[in-house]
TrEMBL record:
Cross-referenced Gene3D superfamilies: MFS general substrate transporter like domains
Domain Major facilitator superfamily (MFS) profile: from-to ranges: 1-89
Pfam families: Sugar_tr
UniProt-recorded name of the protein: Hexose transporter 1
Family as reported in the entry's similarity comment: Belongs to the major facilitator superfamily. Sugar transporter (TC 2.A.1.1) family.
GO molecular function: carbohydrate:proton symporter activity
Amino acid sequence: MAGAILVHTFAYACGWGPITWVFCAEIFPLKYKSKASGLVTSAHWVGFYIVVRASGLLLPAVGFQMFWIFALFNALGAFASVLMPETKGKTLEEIQLIFDPWLRGEETPREVMICGQDDSDYDNYELRVKPVNF
């Protein structure tokens, strides 16, 4: 059991752990970023508290079967990660254009490309938006 906990902690620290902080910091508009980041941080720690408390209560009650419950939640998390739009290589402005309608549930995520002459000429940027097909 100690080995399983060690492997879980290592895998989480190298995988999902940092993604939560980076992804949530990127998806919110600047107007709401501080409040939303605080809410996400609170939800993150409440979730950890629930997992720790549930482990202490479930292990004596159901034994090893408790880990299947956690495996189910991991599978749901993996499925949710497939639904989230990709943010790699995009600026915060591009990410905001992707997530604004998506967070409000207005339409599907969009791939956004901003093209300009050089990085210092933001006034002459052209915005091209095309739908993403899943």
